[in-house]
Amino acid sequence: MTFTPILVGTGLAGYAYLRRTQDDQIARLAASAQPARDIAQFRDRIAQVQDVDDLMNDRALLRVALGAFGLDDDIANTAFIRRVLEGDPGDPEALVNRLADKRYLAFARSFNFAGTPRLPGADATAALRDELAGVPSVEALLADSALLGRALDAFDLGADRDRTVFLSRVLRSDPDDPGSLVNRLGDARYLGLARAFQDKAPGLSADFVARAGEEAAARLGALATSDDLLADRTLLRSALRVYGLEDRIGDAYFLKRVLDSDPDDPASFANALSDPRYGELARAFGFDRRAAAQTSVYGFAAAIRDRLDTLRTSDALLDDPDLLRRALDLFGLEGADRAFLKSVLDSDLADPASVANRQEDPRYRALAGAFDFGAMLGGTPQDEAQRRITRLIDAVEGRRTQPADPAQLFADPTLMVATMTFFDVTLGDSGVRYARAALDSLDPESPFAGTLDPDPRYRAFHAAMDFRPAPEGRAYPPGFAEAVTQAYLERQFELRVGEIDNTLRVALSFERDLGDVAARFGSESGRWFAVLSSQPLRLFFETSFGLPQNFGTVDVDRQVTILREWAERAYGTSAIGDLLADPARIEDMRRTFLAASQTLQRAQVQPFGNTSALTLFGAG
């Protein structure tokens, strides 16, 4: 069975009919012979696509993948498509970033064989957040010139590249505090940069946000634990609805086990269930990952960095519930009352009879040694007494990514010494050998698992390092196959409409194409340059504004200026994000385009005659 779209009329009337019948017609297209086969094969086999060769060697999958981005004509251009896919879309020098047609960039970013795949249409900062997720500190970002450049360019802040002191303050500034630097600047670009960097901490996945909607996702993203979610039935229902799991809303015990599961552990409760939606739910929230981050050396270093100067006495720590909890969690300690903790923290570690030294559990001595309030009581300056903490902060912030396993930790002498000293375990050659053997023995995936029974300091040390080996194989985000095949169907429908009436095709794809531009580029200039590189969008605006056929011969910077000036005149704004935010204005823009197209078809002349828009704006 083949498919031919049904069109009734042209222009405004033809478009109105298409919109009314679009869903039914796409359903008919999906049931036709080749699209039905291709979609079924893509959904069945995409998980097995682990590298560029796998995709290039499967013509049915490649046809769907290219078709989802309007690149059907490149199906035979295998050498070129291979170069597009093999490049790193995060590298400004890669071929895909030098192509004028940004559909190739969207294609490469979604499959991203150089990194992590993501849903088609995910916004520009989604990929940036993926990269920032491995950056442990502001200092590490500022030291990575390539990543810093991409982050600044995403928010049209490339001119600030050398302002490292200022950028350091921006990146540390609290976006939620109206009095913070980033809010006082009054520039949305800096606010966006700060949010993108600070949102690198585990939280809601970008894919979940895309499926749940921004309003619900914003409230859900503020939840810290699975208990917070389970306590709010309205939000819980919103989360479950994304995965069609509303019928389990009454089973709090079951859902807690799902939500607290490690999504990267195939044996975790959620992943062991036969229904893959539970694993996707656990991954979307990442509560397990968030909890681990809170009790890791990385979370502790970030939390204490700006508060360390205030910790001159044990009472200052005891009066800070959040920081005290983090410190105790880091050493795996709990259940102690204030008086006991104060006596531990104030202990003179040089005195064998001090409270910390008399404890059977050596972690109390390690805790006391980290803060060393006892030394400060004896007159030792704070910066000297708390050198263990400052060394830990410096070592953690000096890394680009955190170690995935003990081998990577012990390959970094600075981090190794800082963490071993912090947890008060023995240094020296024999101490390092034992520590490595102890950490290996505590790793359930290690061939040496269970070979030693180290004291509690090593257990706390191992837990605080939060070793997480990268999962084997390539993982596609939840809903990836569905999103790609839906985009493929929509593009195929538009393609078939365009074979009959290209004006209707451009009108159908306009909002999506403009949304893609807004999602991929952070600056308005970048967005308008992308409009010019998109044949449908160029046609849309040139037709709507009545620009002459030789408009494309004008200098490209001047073209952008003219389009933005005409947009200001016609729509009241040239900000593409503002245009997309107003559905009524989008419909008005579409009606203007369709009416202008009909006028041009009837007149077969340029509407400006000899007085073109270029002359009006002094171009040429």
TrEMBL record:
Pfam family, one: DUF1217
InterPro entries from the UniProt entry: AGR-C-984p-like_sf, DUF1217
Protein name as annotated: Flagellar protein
